[in-house]
Design a protein that fits this description.
The complex is a heterodimer. By secondary structure, chain A is an alpha/beta fold. Chain A has one domain (about 35-60, about 85-215): Rossmann fold. Chain A has helices at about 50-55, 80-85, 105-110, 120-135, 150-160, 180-195; strands at about 5-15, 25-35, 40, 65-70, 70-75, 90, 165-170, 200-205, 215-220. The radius of gyration of chain A is 17 Å and the shape is globular. Chain B has 2 domains: about 20-55 and about 270-394, no CATH class; about 75-250, no CATH class. Chain B has helices at about 1-15, 20-25, 30-55, 60-65, 85-95, 140-145, 165-175, 210-215, 235-245, 255-265, 270-300, 300-310, 315-350, 360-385, and strands spanning about 70-75, 85, 100-115, 120-130, 150-155, 175-180, 185-190, 205, 220-225, 225-230, 250-255. Residues about 1-15 of chain B have low confidence and may be disordered. Classes of the chains: A alpha/beta, B alpha+beta.
Chain lengths: ~220, ~400
């Protein structure tokens, strides 16, 4: 096992705007997430949760402080480096964000395409195996428009997990779902994460799913 | 069948459609509208280029049909045969060192009528000594001896159809007659030469003797083109300089210069630029259409592209998708555009009796223009792609 944490944050500060309009969203954050650990990040709207998530996901440049994700220092990282880091992270979004023109398995395949070492001939098989794991084996050739909200979110989970990433970042994955489907989705997420020994950082408002967490972190006004 | 086999093999190997094609084919209506737009632009370009070739081609039909090493024309003539020069000059040029042979080609306009009841048309008459080789048209050389008959002529198959059904009649009955300057003449043979759009509508070839009968003795003193053949091994440039130095009142041209002079006249007409401009308009319309389609596609799928960026796709990879979409659109739009233009050419050729043919080089030119058009549009539309911010997807 890798003894180093998948996420290591030290004194991270981030602000929007310039000059007098400058507003600090994250102040002096310190956080570590270990391999295989499920961490839920909670907090009111505007507390900086999503900004933190986009920074960890290498979607924004780090301003001050140190942010190490999967052993890559993102402080001062080039655009290319950040794209590389992103391809090793599984993302699950509030809305499913699937490509409407692609079938379920082709959507999952879009993640596989990022990894050149996977031969194209294996993509279909791998994608369908992953869809079976989220209980959608028979919907593999359906388009997103023909799937229910819960099914779409499960395809999104399959897309995030198909490459066996060491880290999953999820932003309110149950927000658009009803109680039961939301529950199903996080259960699948939890089960697969444990199987693949992958860490999850999950942002949520949803009190009903807190039980899947190994650790819960509260955030308020940019502080943990 | 072959296509299906290929498709199934493709599916068996990868089973996965390229994203560009999936994106395009997902919205069928938009795809069809886009193809329609490109087809429209293509037809426009095809028609304009077709018209342009109609007006600019055939310009060199005459000079290319004349055989010889050096050619004498009146210095003030704007196109071949517009003005003649004194035959004495031809004799003088013939005495210049290096010239082996000289022969005149007479060019006049005559009034042609298929029958006395029919309206008349301007025909171009070329007259020469049938013993001499003046035209490099094999049919003319073979039939030259027939021109010695009084009142005989050869008729150009590529003359306008308004000249009457001479070729059909000749093929059926073996002879045909028509009126030239109100004299009944016999068509003793056919040949192919063609006309430029602006000069003449039909051609006939006859002997010097018959020409004299038609226009009088004086007409033989005014030569349209003086044709010189040089001795073997003679230096064309030196002979040309020699003639220029000793013979006044003529312009001496090589074969290439003769063709260039005729082309220059044709290009002074506004047809070329007008239709080139039309073709450019078609190109611009194409760029706008493809740009609109790609822009709408990117705008509609901005969140999807942002997601792809978020999960690790580079800008370049997405730009490639847009380029592929553009090229696919170009090819998909070109095919119906070509077919439509092919039939439009046929239809217009039928109506106007002009020689509009779909030529391979024009088709290739339009295909290349279409692909450039699509890539240009993709390049403009890809600016929008940059606004897909992966940080916005959370």
């Amino acid at each position: 096992m890798n003894p180093t944490p998948v996420i290591a944050i030290q004194n991270l500060t981030y602000s929007f705007g310039k000059g007098v309009l400058q507003k600090t969203v994250l102040a002096d954050i310190n956080l570590e997430v270990n391999r295989g650990e499920i961490v839920i990040l909670m907090g009111p709207s505007g507390s900086g949760k999503t900004t933190l998530l986009t920074l960890i996901g290498a979607l924004r440049s780090v301003q001050t402080g140190s942010l190490k994700v999967l052993d890559h220092e993102l402080q001062g990282a080039s655009k290319l480096k950040r794209i590389q880091v992103r391809s090793q992270i599984g993302f699950i979004f509030q809305t499913h964000n699937l490509l409407r023109c692609l079938t379920a398995w082709e959507n999952v395949g879009m993640s596989l395409k990022l990894h050149q070492q996977i031969p194209p001939s294996e993509r279909r098989e791998r994608a369908i195996t992953m869809l079976q794991a989220v209980g959608l084996g028979s919907q593999a050739t359906d388009y997103p428009d023909h799937l229910s909200g819960g099914q779409k979110q499960r395809v999104a989970i399959a897309r995030a997990l198909v490459n066996h990433p060491p880290l999953i970042l999820a932003d309110e994955p149950t927000a658009a779902l009803d109680r039961k489907t939301g529950r199903d989705v996080v259960d699948i997420l939890q089960r697969l994460a444990k199987e693949q020994h992958c860490a999850i950082l999950l942002v949520t408002h949803d009190n009903r799913i807190l039980d899947i967490a190994d650790r819960i972190v509260q955030m308020e006004d940019g502080h943990l | 069948m072959k296509f299906l086999a290929l498709k199934s093999r493709f599916k068996a190997r990868h089973g996965e459609r390229p994203l560009a094609w999936a994106q395009l084919s997902h919205q069928k209506v938009r795809l069809i509208v886009a193809m329609g737009g490109i087809t429209f632009a293509n037809v426009l370009i095809f028609m304009q280029l077709g018209f342009r070739s109609l007006f600019t081609e055939g310009a060199t039909a005459l000079p290319e049909s004349i055989a010889g090493d050096l050619f004498l024309v009146n210095p003030s003539t704007r196109f071949i045969g517009a003005r003649g020069f004194d035959r004495i000059r031809l004799y003088q040029a013939a005495s210049v060192r290096g010239v082996a042979n000289s022969t005149p080609l007479y060019i006049e306009d005559g009034v042609w009528a298929y029958s006395q009841e029919n309206i008349s048309f301007q025909a171009r008459i070329y007259a020469f000594n049938p013993k001499q080789q003046v035209f490099r048209i094999p049919e003319v050389t073979q039939q030259a001896v027939k021109l010695n008959l009084p009142g005989s002529l050869l008729f150009d198959r590529l003359s306008r159809s308004s000249f009457g059904p001479i070729p059909q009649q000749f093929a059926e009955k073996g002879y045909a007659t028509a009126f030239l300057n109100q004299r009944r003449l016999a068509v003793v043979g056919l040949f192919n030469m063609g006309n430029s759009f602006f000069i003449g509508e039909g051609n006939v070839i006859m002997s010097e003797a018959n020409y004299r009968d038609l226009f009088g003795e004086e007409a033989l003193k005014r030569v349209g083109v003086g044709i010189l053949t040089l001795e073997p091994g003679a230096d064309i440039a030196a002979v040309k300089a020699g003639i220029q130095a000793t013979v006044p009142g003529v312009e001496v041209l090589t074969h290439a210069e003769l063709i260039a002079k005729e082309l220059k006249f044709q290009e002074s007409t506004p047809a070329g630029p007008i239709f080139s401009f039309g073709a450019i308009m078609g190109f611009v319309i194409g760029v706008v259409v493809v740009y609109q389609v790609l822009y709408a596609d990117i705008s509609d799928h901005l969140s999807e592209y942002a997601t792809l960026k978020a999960i690790g796709y580079s800008d370049l990879a997405l730009l490639r998708v847009i380029l592929q979409e553009a090229l696919l659109l170009g090819i998909l739009g070109f095919a119906p555009g070509w077919v439509t233009s092919f039939f439009m050419y046929g239809l217009l050729a039928h109506i106007t009796r002009l020689e509009l043919v779909m030529r391979l080089d024009v088709a290739v030119t339009v295909l290349i223009l279409t692909l450039i058009m699509c890539v240009a549009s993709a390049a403009i539309a890809s600016n929008k792609l940059r606004s897909a911010d992966p940080a916005d997807v959370f």
